[in-house]
Amino acid sequence: MKPRKGRVAPTKRELWAAHTLWASGCEDQARLQKAVDELGIAEPKARVKRPSTKPPEPSEHQEQAAFVKWFRLQYPGVLIFAIPNGGARDPITGAMLKAEGVTPDVPDLEIPAWRMYVEMKKRSGRVDPDQEKMHEYLRGCGYHVVTCMGCDEAILAVRYQVKAMKEAGTWE
């Protein structure tokens, strides 16, 4: 591998050949060293992964926990509770819960006094079509059902519901 006359920088092909020799553990170390010296390259450096400048997106659990904490501070006399339908379970526990009436696709939170359900998603989440069918069923039964992408949307939805109840004269 001789560099071309008049060329200072090696071609991509020459660099690739030298890298391939280096990476393959070339048995002829003298040949490898000569090729590397002629091309004027050093051992390829490992790529360093740069830390992300964006903070990680909160999980659905973190969003829901923050919302419930906020809700309980804002409306201490109003019951809000979680409906634990999701999560990984062993088959025996899953069968027991199913026999007890756990139903898939029911929203995550219920506020019974307001006839309201809240489906929490992380900010980049999406609603499953089966969940949307359940939401339509609950709306047909007279419940207010909202899907919120994160804690901030859930807070806005609750504030909107309170405003609507005050305007309707049903706020206590």
How would you characterize this protein structure?
The termini are far apart. The protein contains 6 helices and 4 strands. A 4-stranded mixed beta sheet has the order 1-2-3-4, with helices on both faces. It has 2 domains: 9-49, no CATH class; 60-168, Trna Endonuclease, Chain: A, domain 1 (3-Layer(aba) Sandwich). It has 172 residues and is of the alpha+beta class. Helix 1 (12-23) runs antiparallel to helix 2 and helix 3 (60-74) runs parallel beside helix 6. A hairpin with a 4-residue loop joins strand 2 and strand 3 (116-121).
The residue-averaged pLDDT reads 84
Shape designation: elongated
Helix count, DSSP H or I runs of 4 or more residues: 6
CATH topology title of the largest domain: Trna Endonuclease, Chain: A, domain 1
Uncertain runs = none
Strand order of the largest sheet: 1-2-3-4
How many runs of DSSP E, i.e. beta strands?
4
Helix content: 40-55%
Could you name the CATH class of the largest domain? Alpha Beta
Write the layout of secondary structure elements.
Blueprint: H1 12-23, H2 29-39, H3 60-74, E1 81-82, H4 91-100, E2 109-111, E3 116-121, H5 129-140, E4 144-149, H6 151-168
Parallel strand pairs: 3-4
Antiparallel strand pairs: 1-2, 2-3
Helix pairs in contact: 1-2, 3-6
